[in-house]
TrEMBL record:
Organism, scientific name: Ornithinimicrobium cryptoxanthini
UniProt keyword annotations, A-Z: Methyltransferase, Transferase
Record-annotated Methyltransferase type domain positions: 37-129
GO biological process: methylation
Name this polypeptide is given: Class I SAM-dependent methyltransferase
Annotated family: Belongs to the methyltransferase superfamily.
Entry-linked Pfam families: Methyltransf_11
Signal peptide: none
Amino acid sequence: MAFNAADSYDRFMGRFSRPLAQVFADRTGVRAGQRALDVGCGPGALTEVLIERLGLDHVEAVDPSPPFVAAIAERFPGLSVREGTAEHLPHADDSFDLSLAQLVVHFMADPVAGLRQMARVTRPGGTVAAAVWDLTPGARGPVSPFQTAVAEVDPSWVVSQARPGGARGELGELFRSAGLRQVEESVLTAEVPIASFEDWWEPFLLGIGPAGDYVAGLDERARHELRERTRRLLPDGAFTMPVDAWCAVATV
């Protein structure tokens, strides 16, 4: 999977992750005076919200992708951002009031280990929280229409896209397996304006993530057929797309 092109990733998923970040920060109670860590920061959708609410000196970020680390360092000069994985966070114990992971648990090599690390770097009484897209069939996710269209001809691929935390109750169970207690689960909904079908479809051609890989592997005819099947699932003209994410919040 290609997740190392910061600009392309931002075009593909940023339009969804930026509004989600506002809702996620509200849900986790981000407030002035706290210190926060953005785990798996990517190009900085959640990081930006944390900086707006807490100030640059109260936010740190970490990501395993060197291009993402370079991009976010350029975007927010002076931000403390490091290269590292959730499973091996390069931070001291009890360093933060909040450790947050948006759209990351899906792709952790070991989600339970990653959540344990997030708890380790969070002070007692602090908050560990994560949000992941709802990936259940028929869900309201950013790529749900795409998956519905693919399922008409290649259902095995859609089945293969199941990821940790993507179904109801799974994220909370991962938290509890990591030793976290007082876990509160909820659904977050973000409203995303889409200018047109073409505006929604074009980023799928950038080769980003599993959907981009899938499109890139099709010949021209199959790509066109998939595009037209997907078009039938979405409105004509401009529309607003509600997208849902599972959220789990725990107190350390």
